[in-house]
Specification:
The structure holds 2 protein chains of 2 kinds. By secondary structure, chain A is mainly β. Chain A has 1 helix and 7 strands. In chain B, the strands form 4 sheets. In chain B, strands 1, 2, 9, 10, 11, 12, 17 and 18 form an 8-stranded mixed beta sheet that branches. A 4-stranded antiparallel beta sheet of chain B has the order 14-15-13-16.
Amino acid sequence: MKDAPAAGSVTITVDDRELQVPEGITVAAAVLGHAHAGRTYIHPVDNSPRAPYCLMGVCFECLMEINGEPDVQSCLISVEEGMIIKRQLQHEEVN
Amino acid sequence: MFIKKIMQPKPTEHEIIVAGGGISGAAVAYGLAKKGHKVTMIDAPTETNKASRTNVGLLWCQSKFAHLPDYAKWGFHSCRLFPELTKELEEVSGVEIPVNYTGGLIACLGDDEFNTRQDYIGKLKEELGEYNGSMIDRAELERKLPKVPFGPEVTGAAWCEEDGIVEPLALLRAYLVGFERAGGIIKNTLIHDVQPVGGGYRVITEDGPMDCERLVLAAGLANRRLAQFAIADLPVSADKGQVLLVERMPYVMPIPMLGVTQTFGGTIIIGFRHEFVGHDTRIIPEDIATEGKWAIRVWPELGRQRLIRAWSGLRVMPDDKQAIYSKLPGHPNATIINTHSAVTLAAVHTRYIPDFIINEDLPELAQGMTLKRFGYTC
């Protein structure tokens, strides 16, 4: 079976790795399906590893740093050309 | 060929029906089932539109009811029974119930607020005789919650070591599982009407009529509708709250604070409004803004965090604020329960109200909490 005709794609960076991903998909989808990033976030209360789950803005498990802004719900944001995405694998300690 | 008669479905037979499956209904239904009664609990299918599912789960006895000392003592008594209750429910249900018996705090902004609170607590101590709480200054507050950076206006707090916080959804879940394991039956259906029939009651539901020997109305605000057969104007009102939810943060508040409380999941619930506006559940941005602004004065860091939700809920508020445990006028087999503090009072509800339902006296502290105080004979 042939691949579907290439739709437009954009280049994003996930943890310093450049990726070509279809335009219009969400950051969560890109990180799961193209980056195969596994864990993307550490729960601030129990330190457990988390990853995008509900994909509809409800569960808050998909928080990542997007273009320098931390704790963004990545399932609600579409990829854009040049977007810089970082997994949040350490949470800030409150002193 | 048979001619099919058009007729009402035959009523099913039940010993006790509890109308209402929130924390109040579940607390007494569980207590009744544990005593060996055959209990059917009916809960309306819409699970979200309920006070038991919109609250933060404070176990709270401090700083209230100086004018109703028995009610204040009733709350303290329940808080003292709570550790035993949650341990039992966890064992019976297998549901883990997050709970902190760490005391509770009410932050004060400025000297006037601190002094007003101090005066009230002094009065409460006098009324109750025993009161395990006091005012603490800012330094002491910072020692209790060292990871919460308080705003400059915070002068101190009211402190009570008998308060705490429980995860209310886990408490409710544990009650429901425990109830079913004790032989109770849960039916999710809407009750249209209740009618006295013979010495018992016919509960008309969406799924057909159900008859019972004894009836318990624990349906919160819906009690006003369901008790119509005995009382036209139940003195209970909807008390609207609107709350803000702040995104998860590292867990810094093991001791809950009134009005700005960190949940076990790490989110912060902000809210303190009491509004008597009927069943209007709209979120009004100007209203919730007052709550957010106050919370930022207490804990400025919250102003830099994201808000992720706002919601409203209707508290169930008896008109004199005190719980109602009563037989309905003229109906010794119909018991009504209405209280704003279903979480805090859950332990006394489970322990004492089942006996009252099956016609024993209320414990002494609660004997003034019947409908008699509103002028009814019951």
